[in-house]
Amino acid sequence: MNRKYLFIIALFATPAIIAIIMFRVYLSSKDELNGLKQQQKEMQALKSEFQALKGIVDSAEAKKSLSKVQGIVQAVDELSLSLGMKAKVKSVKALGARDIRYAIEEDADVQVERVTMNELVNMLYKIENAPMALSLKRVNIRTAFEDPALLNISMTLSLIRNK
């Protein structure tokens, strides 16, 4: 009779043990799924941030490679010529070139005299949206002595181009 009871107990205990094991596996897989969903959300956020930064870098790289100018002096000449301000640019002094990691940065001191506020705004817009990588490092704006409505500008411009 003991064998009969052991057989009945084993018959009922086996499915109960299997059910407990399956329930534990289910709970652990549910926890793992929640963790993976959280990681997926984090990865999606990083992906969108990466794509935004990649777009910025790609546009900067495209600007850098579009420039057909040989140096900062030529870049300033093209800029002033496109604005019709060639006569107002009094001097362009190249300050030298620095070797950056993947590019060359050339600086120049530019003196522009007797410009209106509108011409200044147009020049700054052209510098920002030029088809080359121009960077404005320093600007000094003063009113002209002869006419207070006109401005004298001293600025340091940088051209970043490929090696």
Please explain how this structure is put together.
There is one protein chain. The protein is α+β, with helices and mostly antiparallel strands. The chain folds into 2 domains: 1-66; 72-162, Ribosomal protein S6/Translation elongation factor EF1B (Alpha-Beta Plaits). 55% of the residues lie in helices and 29% in strands. The protein has 3 helices and 4 strands. It starts with a helix and ends with a strand.
Strand elements, count = 4
What percent strand? 25-35%
Query: Roughly how much helix do the residues carry, as a percent range?
Result: 40-55%
CATH architecture heading of the largest domain: 2-Layer Sandwich
Summarize the helices and strands and which ones pair or pack.
Elements: H1 2-66, H2 72-83, E1 89-99, E2 103-115, H3 117-128, E3 133-143, E4 151-162
Antiparallel strand pairs: 1-2, 2-4, 3-4
Supply the key terms.
163 residues, alpha+beta, Alpha-Beta Plaits, 2 domains, four-stranded antiparallel β-sheet
